[in-house]
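Sequence of Pyridoxamine 5'-phosphate oxidase (Streptomyces klenkii).
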Amino acid sequence: MVPAMPGEEREHFLAGLHVGVLGVTDTGDGRAPLLVPVWYRYEPGGEVVVQTGRETVKARLLRAAGRFSLCVQDENPPYRYVSVEGPVTAVNDPVDPVEREAIAHRYLDPEEARAYLKSTADQLADDITFRMRPQRWRTANFAAFAAEFSEADRMDRDG
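Predicted 3D structure, token representation.
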């Protein structure tokens, strides 16, 4: 069995800097769910916040489904991931400029964030914000397995 993360650990992991993969149901003609990488914001105990263009496929599907999932991972050993799913609790239209700025500064250094915000200023009129309350959590932390393998390897070498 894959070791899960305790509640506080999973929330701090989700709050860490990761690119998320957003998943939302696509009910069109046997299509698989839409999965797209996104910048997001989350603070422990709070809501997941994502932004997208008002007229995008993602926005249309989010409105129709009324819920989404987000998965984030650490690609470096020992591997870890957190996946959350829950209902959309609010749609802010248009996007709040302060929220947009906070997300840009989360992912970019200050100079890059300023340049990004300036070059994409027109998105303030086109983007909207979706908020989701995590209801279901799926997690894995392979650190325990890594420790076991390291110990077994050490014992084999030391013989």
